[in-house]
Amino acid sequence: MNTERLDGKVFVITGGSSGMGAALAKDFCNRGAKAAIFDLDEVKGTEVVEEIRASGGSAEFFPCDVTSKKQIHERTNEVEEKLGLITSWINSAGVSQMKPFLESEEEFWDLTLNVNLKATFLCCQVAVEKMLENGGGEILNMASLSGKKASSWQTVYCASKFGVMGLTQSIAKEFADKGIRINSLCPGIVHTEMWEKLKYDYAKKRDIEPDEVMDYFKKNIPMHRLVEIKDVINAAIFLLTDNSSYLTGQSINLAGGEWMD
Ligand SMILES: NC(=O)c1ccc[n+]([C@@H]2O[C@H](COP(=O)([O-])OP(=O)(O)OC[C@H]3O[C@@H](n4cnc5c(N)ncnc54)[C@H](O)[C@@H]3O)[C@@H](O)[C@H]2O)c1
């Protein structure tokens, strides 16, 4: 079991109302960190915060559309008033749908690129500004194996996540000597709310039943299992602490042997 403590750290976690963002917020607060959740989903975000507080942790929910620069700036200032100086930032807000390329409308492109790429750009900008004032920090972008590996019916999602890789690497170079490290995680399949929705379209793509989708993946992953939340937590702790003090601009594949580049 990972016994790393995160006392003194103040995290902003975008997309923290659900899935990996929520799991990271809960786990990190148990380790002594404070978490600020930025998400559109106020109901689920408030539940996450209540759960953290019930087990003695410190967290706040901030309603925020991360595609809005104005909202991100306003919420970020409120975080520093309520929780203290931001030391760390996780960009986990994301959207995904599976569509054949020729059925991928312009609106679908705009939404996906806005949430997955533009919002990551906007949030990284605010995070870097704060971290320069605060003497450094660490940023983690939730990319995906789809940031490195093509998939049919995922053209738009892949384009957004390949973009996150370039963004992460370029910011890393520019601020490497300023005490700011930025890395990305590239998980394969994590069975969150996102895949509960995606499995119906994936089933169509493979001509299988939705309930067969997760087993289909397991069969084809060399370790024959999906990414577990504990895998995400352990990798995130590594990338967001001094354990990885010489790593910046890197992307860690959580792939069970499926992808190695
Ligand atoms: N689940 C997977 O298999 C998987 C694999 C690789 C990468 N990822 C990526 O990891 C991240 C988290 O995925 P997840 O599975 O936890 O997803 P999820 O759907 O469970 O959670 C995503 C969260 O983002 C929030 N969000 C969406 N648009 C937003 C906006 N404009 N402003 C603020 N919040 C917004 C949603 O409300 C939701 O709470 C995403 O970026 C996703 O692309 C997921």
The CATH first-level class comes to Alpha Beta
Count of spatially separate domains: 1
Instruction: Name the overall outline.
Output: globular
Distance between the termini: 28 Å
CATH topology grouping? Rossmann fold
Assigned CATH superfamily: NAD(P)-binding Rossmann-like Domain
* Assembly category: single chain
Radius of gyration: 18 Å
CATH architecture: 3-Layer(aba) Sandwich
Overall residue-averaged pLDDT value: 98
Sequence stretches where pLDDT stays below 50 over 5 or more residues:
none
SSE-based structural type: alpha/beta
Tell me the number of helical segments per DSSP (H or I, 4 or more residues long): 8
As a percent range, the share of helical residues equals 40-55%
Strand order of the largest sheet: 3-2-1-4-5-6-7
How would you describe this protein?
The chain has 261 residues and is an alpha/beta fold. The protein has a single domain (10-189, 227-254), classed as Rossmann fold (3-Layer(aba) Sandwich), CATH 3.40.50.720. The protein is built from eight helices and seven strands; from the N terminus they run E-H-E-H-E-H-E-H-E-H-E-H-H-H-E. It has helices at 19-30, 42-54, 69-82, 106-134, 155-175, 193-206, 213-220, 229-239, and strands spanning 10-14, 34-39, 58-63, 88-91, 137-142, 180-187, 251-254. The protein has a seven-stranded parallel β-sheet with strand order 3-2-1-4-5-6-7, with helices on both faces. Helix 1 (19-30) packs parallel to helix 2. The two termini are 28 Å apart. Bound molecules: nicotinamide-adenine-dinucleotide. Nicotinamide-adenine-dinucleotide (NAD) binds at residues 14-15, 17-21, 39-41, 64-67, 92-96, 115, 142, 144, 187, 189-190, 192-195.
